[in-house]
Amino acid sequence: MFCLPRLRAYLDRSGLPLPVVATRAGLSVAELAEIERGTRIPTADVLADLTAVLGCTVPDVHTVEPNPNSHDHYWAVMVATAPEMTPQEIATIGYILRHIDTTTTGRAG
Questions:
Q1: Cβ proximity of 72 and 63 under 8 Å
Q2: Is the pLDDT of residue 8 over 70?
Q3: Residue 11 in contact with residue 36, Cβ under 8 Å?
């Protein structure tokens, strides 16, 4: 089953502007925007072209999960494809997440 959050993650991870992805995949910008918004389901051929541009495979943007639109799929791809981090980067992200938790819940932890 096609999983839009996974496709969005690969789009984000690519760092390519949507017009560049669309052109390379043989789509119009409007067609890619509709796919990215979830108002158009891509065909198998379109998915093959998109995944080739994004450096992933068609199975990478599919899931067997019961809720293919869960944001968990987006974050699973982002984490799985993230570059290795230094201890300093990990500490910095930990600090930021603790700060976000404190400001949104009023308590740390």
A1: no
A2: yes
A3: yes
Q: Pull the structure tokens for residue 85.
A: 């981090």
Residue of 60 and 102 predicted with greater confidence: 60
80 vs 52, residue with greater confidence: 52
Domain 4-82 has CATH 1.10.260.40: yes
Residue extents of the structural domains in the chain = 4-82
The whole-model pTM stands at: 0.65
Nearest-angstrom CA–CA distance, 88 and 23:
38
Q: What is the DSSP string of 50-97?
A: HHHHHTS-GGGGB--SS-TT-HHHHHHHHHHTPPP--HHHHHHHHHHH
